[in-house]
Each structure stands twice: as structure tokens, then as C-alpha cells.
Amino acid sequence: MTKKMKKVVLLAAAIAYLGSNEAIAQSNLKSIGAPINTREYREHAFSISGDGKTFVFVQDRPDGTKVFMSSRADKSAAWETPQLIKTITDKVQKGKIMGTSLTYDGRELYFDAIFPSGFGDRDIFYAKRIGNEWNEPANVGEPLNTAMYEGSPSVSQDGKMLFFVREKFEKYRNTESCYTIWVANKTDDGSWTNFEKMGEPINSECERTVTLMPDSRTLIFSSIRGGGAGGFDLYQTELQEDGTWTFPKDVDFLNTPNNEEYTAISGNTEEVYIEIKGDIYVSPLPNKFRGARQVPVNVMVVDAMTKKPIDASVFVAMNSRNSASFSAKNGVSLMQLKAGNNYTLACEAPGYLPANQIKVSLENVNGTETINNTIEMMPKNIAYTIRVLGPDNNVISNAKIRVFDLSNNQIVPLDINNNTRVVFGNLYGLTVSGGGNADYTGNWIPETNDADEKFVKTIKLEAKTTSTPVVAAAKVDKRENPYVNAPEVDMSKPTETFKLKSDPNISFETKKIYTLNDVYFDRNSIIVKSEYYIDINRLIELMTLNPKLNVQLSGYSDSVGDAVINQKISLRRAKSCADYLKRAGIDPNRMLVKGLGEQEIIKDSKGKEDTSKSRRVRFIVY
């Protein structure tokens, strides 16, 4: 019998079996059809991207294992003719690829294989996609891969968590290969760590494959255990808030006396893909197996000046404890977030200021709608024009201008039209002379609100005078510090304690000084780094829950340089934190901002100043 005839016979047997099995018949299983399924070959080891537009699968042929990718315009369109992923196929030396896992955005593919560059029996590899091309696969490396068997990879939607199987052993009838299920976490440098062998009741007697659903907290895995339909059956378990997993439930609409092993779940969790007798089938996923309802959220990150997409990191926070990060390649970041919650999105990109946070409410989202957001990021390095006016407000075209970057004591170049490039939030010194007027010497911190003035820095020179200057009383510059209306701290009031709903273990005590969990600043900088956003969100939550509370934000500097300059920059650091609170909806009249400069220098154990810790902001809630 030829292989083609054998495949036809097997297909006919599968159809007959499906028709005779009530559980499967009720599941509405349907062949994915051509051009993915074929009569001649086995199709298996499949995975699908979060948007449902990319499908990767493995095909076993007489001349070896082939890896293919098929695409479609949208989830309702037909699959296009599969394209061979040659860079991976050419590496398969012996044995088959048994499992694949696309990241949610479809840009990376994890798979298990036996390659010459492996560490042992079977290892996990990955490849990155650029356009429709895949680069050379790479071993994920030690210590995830060992001399033991590692296979069936399944990666979370943010690419930071990987489930897999390990430790091959024979248990049943000396023919079935059994494994245990493990999980690992990805570090910022791209390596894998925190390996954990999952305990009972997930690892029970004999497990073989594992699939992480798009919500990144629900697993479907295959197992031989008591009470099953026969052979390997599929089970589902969910991660709880306390870190435990629910007792696995039987995926009854798919399980039969045969082996059910590999699955893939669509991004909207509405469909499940499964292999039956060498072909791929798809079925609606019943509500009870869909896990927590997820909402597709798409984020486009663009340059605020050019509106062109940029690579960035997108930080997602539900509260002070629950957060995740996603990459935005070419400006696009695709994710799914749990329905019924509110989220805060923030961005960070090299060469750009942290973007204003965006609030995303999924409390009343209906159907399968997709939430789209665009985040604009202001480049740190921006072009400015220095304009010099005389006492009569006429432009002095031949003025002599010098700009100093006080972070490195370097002169910043200007062209013949007095155009220059500076970094937002850095401190600069300016000296200007011209037209026989009094010279100007001052400091300058470029800020994002300068965009309203077309990034023009205007210096007005005063006429020279020989009279004794009159020192006017100091006035509050509302632009420099608009946060002056809140009352001063009343230390005579009794102390109160407040707790956060998001984390009852965190409490705030009025009149007690809190540092914003190590919110430190670079030298001569006023920029609040996005790594501190989640910590400051705790203060936002506290003030939102308690609308009668006020806060005093006090900025500090180190003792390096001029004390007057240090006082100004400390004020602007506190103002940057207050601006963050204001953008989150906190009334500016509830905030009191002070710049205390060098008043409280931090010293180390040897009595030497720790300049990095002196540059900080702290607050008092009252």
C-alpha cells in the first residue's frame, strides 16, 4: 500500500470514528482543509498567532520533516498556500519536530528539535521573524536545555514565560513516553531562569504536552491518569490569585479512547485546533474552557514629531502588584488583557522621554471588539532655536550665544541661524551678549511644553544701567511651580493609617515621610523613569480612594555644583512627580511641591556623600 493510499484509509477511518463517537460528534470538529491538510502527509505540531493571521505547522514527508507557515488577511479569510520555512527545515537532521509555539505577536517561533547544536536528547530552539522571512534558529541555551529531553514549548503572550516538558521516562506498557511539566521565566538579558517543576495535581503520573492559552494563566496539557477516556487525554487548569493551580478538569468534548495530545488555541480563545489521524481539525471552544475573557488591545507607538512608528517597550499595570511588559516592534504591540479591569499603559524607548500614561478601561467591553491606542513619544534630543531680543523687543541677529551642557560641561554647538539640539529634562547654562546691552547668564531646562512655542528659547536682554539695582520681593512663578495652593502639613493632627485595595499589605501613615520607593534621578535630570511608574501609582491609588488627603512632594539634589542651580533642579524633580499625579487625575490643589536642594544630603557608612541617592523625591501624605 502506498503512503498516499494509507493516508486515505486513515482519513476514512477517522471520519468513521468521528461519526460513531458521540462526544466528538457534538464538538463540531471540522477539518482545517486544504491547502494546509493534505492526503499524502501528516500535519501536526501547529501553532497560531494571537491575531489569527499566521499558522505554523510541521509536515512529515519521506524526505524528512518540513516546517511551513500559512497566512490569511483576517480570521474569516481562507488560508493561503503554505510557505516553507527553509531556515528551520534545513536544520532538522534526525527525529521530528514535535511541538511549536508562536508568540502572540507572531514574531518568534519556539520549537523542539534534535539539532547538531543541541545539548542532549531533544532541545528547545527559537527563530525570529522579519517580514515573512525567518532567521537562523538558535538554541535557547543552558540551563533550560540539558542532556535530558526538553520539548513541547509553549510561550506566554508577552514572551516572558515558557512552559515545556522534561525528563523522559517509560511508564505504561513500556511503549508510552512520559514526561513532567516545567515552567521558566525570561530575564531582561534574554536568558531563562527560575525553573520550576510543576507539582501535583498537574504532574501526576504521565504527562506529554502542554499548551498555554492566550490569557497566560490557563494550561491545557495531555496526561494519562485515572478516570480518563483512554490513552493520553487533555486536561485544563487555571492559575489562581494566590499562585496555586485549580484541580485539572477533563476537556471532555475532545477526549476519546485514542491519544489526544497537541492543541493550539486561537487568540480570542473561541477555537481550539487539534490533530486527528494526521490532519488538523478546528472546533469551537465551549465557554467553560475559554478561561478568563480576554480583550485584544493593540498599541501603536509613534514619534511625536514625525508620527513614524518606533521600537519601544510597553508597560501594562492593573494595580501596584500586577504588571507586565510587551515589546512594540516597528511601533506595534499586540496583547490581550483581562476583561472587567482597568489598566494603565506607559512606554519607554531609547532616545525618547517616557510617554504620558494612558488609561484603558475594559469594564464594559462587549463582544470581541479590539481596543486600539496610539501613544506618542517625544524624542529627548530635539531641535531648538535660540532667539535673542533687545530691550525694545527687536531681534538681535548678531548676538553671541553660548550653550553649556552642565551634565558633562561641554559646549553645545549652534549653527549660523542659532539652531541647536538639546535633550529634554537636562540642565543647560546660557550666556548671551549683543547690541550693547547687559549680558545675560542663566540656566535652562528644555521641557515638553515648549512645543507650544515651536521649540524656540527666547532670551530678552536688558539695557545696561549704572544705577544700583532694586531687589524686588521674591514672587512665585506659577509656571515654575503651580503646586502651591495645598495647605502646609499640620503636625498637630492625629496620625491616621490608610491601606490600598490592590494590596492590603501596603499601608500609608499620615505625617510620615515616605521616599517614593527609591525614585532617583540621573545627574542634572528631572525625568521620572518609567521603572518607577508602578510605585508612584500606589500614591495615586491612595489619593483617589481618599479624596481629602493632600501630599507634599519634596525634591532634593546632590551637593555637586552650584547650590542655586541645585535648588532649582530639585524643585523641578518634585514638579515632575506632581505632573505625573496630575495626569492621572489628582487635583493640583491637593499637592504642595517644594525644592529643598542640598538640605538633606545622603551619606554612606563611611560618611561620604552618596550622590545618586541624594537626587530624589520624597513625600508626606496628610
TrEMBL record:
Predominant cellular place of this UniProt entry's protein: membrane
PROSITE patterns xref list: OMPA_2 (PS51123)
Classification via SUPFAM superfamilies: DPP6 N-terminal domain-like, OmpA-like
UniProt KW Membrane keyword: yes
Key words, A-Z: Cell outer membrane, Membrane, Signal
Domain named OmpA-like: residues: 509-622
Signal peptide start-end: 1-25
Keyword Signal: yes
Compartment(s): Cell outer membrane
InterPro entries: 6-blade_b-propeller_TolB-like (IPR011042), Bact_OuterMem_StrucFunc (IPR050330), OMP_bac (IPR006664), OmpA-like (IPR006665), OmpA-like_sf (IPR036737), WD40 (IPR011659)
Name of the protein in its database record: OmpA-like domain-containing protein
Entries under Pfam families matching the protein: OmpA, PD40
GO annotation, cellular component aspect: cell outer membrane
